Structure formats: C-alpha cells, structure tokens
Fold this sequence. Notes:
By secondary structure, this protein is α+β, with helices and mostly antiparallel strands. It is 41% helix and 14% strand. Strands 2-14-13-8-9 form a five-stranded antiparallel sheet. A hairpin with a 2-residue loop joins strand 10 and strand 11 (398-399). The two termini are 35 Å apart. The relative contact order is 0.11.
Amino acid sequence: MRSFERWGQQGKDGDNANLNGWENMNVPPNSAVVGGDSLATAEKYNNARQQRKIIAVLGNRYGGDDVSDAYLKMPDVAVSEEERNRVLDELASGLITDTDKRNLLERITRPSDLENGLRNVYLGLDSKHEKRILAEMTQVGFGNWQNVAESDLSSFLRSYPTPMDFDNRANSFLDSIEDGSGLQKRQEYERAMRDFYQKVYGKRDEYWQNIKSLEEEAAIRRNGGGAPQRSDSYRSFEGERSAEWQPGEVGYWQTSRKQAYEGQVTKENISKGLWADERCEDSYFVRPDQQMYGVFDGAGGMRGGRAASRLVENVVREFSDNYILESGANLAYVLNVADERVLNDENAGVSTAVLVKVVQHEGRTKLAYASVGDSRIYIVDKNNNVRQITHDEGEGSVIWNAIGARREDLAQGGSRTGQYGEVELHQGDRVVLCSDGITGDYGSDIMSDRELGFIMSRSTDALEASKNLIASARKNDDRTAIVFGDFSR
C-alpha cells in the first residue's frame, strides 16, 4: 500500500498516470491538508471558540466579574494546551464548582434579556408541546397548556435562569412522559425540548452544551482516556486506566425493502438465514483485516439507487486496496471521489454513506469516520449507553446531502463530505453502522437510542447484534447493519 499523501502522483504500477482523475478531486472543505484531523465546519468552529472562552473564564474564575465579562465579549480568545488541561483536571476533581459554571452562564445574554425579548420569546413558543413544557414547569399545569401567558414565562425564567438549572427537571419531565405515554411520545417531546431550550436560553444553551462537553472530556481523562499530557495532580490516576479496547469479530446482515413489505423480516426467518434478495439497493463494505467498514444506502424508489451504492462500494474497495487511510479526512476524501464517480455515471442515482476505520493515533485507539446523508454511526459503551456520532443530513423523505446529488437538486444546497473526524474507543465500546432502514423516519418506525441500547445489551456477539437490529427495525425499507467491537464484558 502507498501512503495517502501519494494520491494522484503515480498510478497503480508506479508510473505517472493519474488514477481516473482522482488527483483533481477537491479535499474535504476547510481542511488545509488532506489527512487533517477534523473538519472545521461552522458548527465545530463555533463550539471550539466557545470552549476556548469557557476555559479562559473558568481558568481565571478568581479574577473577578470584569475578567469574565471581558473574555465572553471577545470574538475569540487564545488558550494554551497547558491551560486547557489544567481546567479539565479541575473540572474532573470538582475544584470548578456548579456555582462557577452558573456564574459563567448568567453572564451570557438570553433572548429574553433583549428589548421586548420576553414578549418575543413567548410568542415564539408556537407548538403545543413547547407550551405544555412551560405549563408543566409553572403553576399552570400540563393539562391547562392553552392558558400559559407571558407572565408564566417570566416566572419560569426566575426559577430556571440557566439551562443548567432546568436540566434535571427537563429529564424528569421526559421520564414522566415516557412512563405515561411511551417512547414515541417521549421522542416527540425530546424534539420539542431542544427547540424550547434554544428559544428560551439562546446562547446560554450553546455554552451549557459546551460546558457539558468539557465535563465529559474531563471525566474521560479521569478514567484514563484523556489527553497525552497530564498535570501532576492527576498522575495518580494512571493506574486506573481502562483496559484496551478489543476489536472483536464483525457481524453484518442485510434484508430488502420488498422482504420487509411482505412481512418476511422476522427474528425467526433471520435465524434461518433470510438474507437480502436482488431487490436490495443498499451496499456494504466489510474489511476486518483493515478494521474498515461502510454502509451505503442507495436512495430507494429513485432511478439508479442500487447503481449508486455499488459505485460507492467499489470506490471504497479500490482505495482500501491501494492506499493507507489513516484519518477521518482520508475517508472523507474517498467519499468525495465516490461522489464525483457517481455524478459522472448516467445510470447512477444517489446514495448515502457512512465509512469508518479503526486507527492508532498517539497511542490511542480511535474510530476514524466520514458520513454523507442519513445513514448513521453509533458507539454503544459497556453500559449500553448510546452515542450517535453522525447527524442526519435529511429528515423523513427529504435528503439534504447525498453522494451523486447535484447541488442544485438538494434542499439546502448540499455539500461534499461535511462530517468526518476521529473519536476515541474505550473498553467495552461497540460500533454500529446502519442505513435508515434500521433507525426509521417517522413516528412508530423510529428506533430510539434507548431501544438500540437495549438490543445491544441482549446480544452476545456482533453477528447476533446485527441480526437483532434488522429484526427489530420497523421501517419498510432496505435494512443494513454492521456491528463490531468489544463484546468481552
């Protein structure tokens, strides 16, 4: 295999021929060098900028209110790696308290703090679910949601001035919805809750989410998965590092849309060997020797979906055979090549894609990934907590981004591969790749994170897990699932 940096400089036999024009492909957007660690999308850039401000404020929390205000008002601040590590250590040890975090959040302007802000926020609560949330959290009561008023929002904000104050009550509320009306209704309110947070708290919610991200990073450091450099105060935790992640065996399974419509996709039939027939438009890539895997969902019902997903699979296979792929940016580049190939094939429609590879970076085992569309990548930890690594570039039957789709045909203008990076793997982690035939689109066909985690908890190995995911899905669609990771717990 040749190193990734040699792309386009020589052909497969070492001559100077190009590889089907691959040398002219664009690198993933905002990546200065092919092989960079992650994509600086607007959202990621904003989160990184906010985290730098948070670190600056929390790192100087005894500098007074003027210091905090000054940092928060700056467009950006610079923080050193040493300062970042110190703040993470202090978060992990509890030296930075909830009071420190709340003091930071209270210094950020809410939408209601602006002129006519309270009135505008109240009028912006335009869904029944949002008004029921407000009614439940005030004296109005869930059943009287139609009677909520601007004064109730004012009362709510006095009780819960920051999203940090509201978080525990929000979770209790969602739990009560699930207990009374089931998972589907909870999911409806989870979506409404996200809108409610953003409308009521605005930037405070963004900063709170980034504080929680830093807290998660701090917890990982304390449990042995942190940055290579540690401060002296935490060297005592070196002995508590988690055991190394185990790759285990890979399991994968696939069935077709037609089989689902006909009611054939049952646990009993799958246990007897039911496999996708020739009508399935999904493709997949399984390469255990390289620990590299992919799922490619040809758009069902559209011309050339099957041809598109097969082309993506072929491009991935060609690159895996000829190049060393070492980062999420490398994988994103491969999907960009596949996009160009599909666009230039008159028989091909469009396809989604998720592609992963296990890599070693700085002594850590990481999952490099790239994604286009609404297929998904999950990591399920040893306690069966589910973390969705990708976000859907589509909703329901609408796709915002897809391989082979012309930019003008996409709902939001589209882009090339906009999701890629690396995430660390820890003891007990299992990875799930799946098409949206597993996760669903609407109402009762949606598979929640909790349900996915339960399915994984009942599976003793990767093959059983992939079969159980297929059999438990409810959407009448092609279904593809790949599972691998640490089932040794």
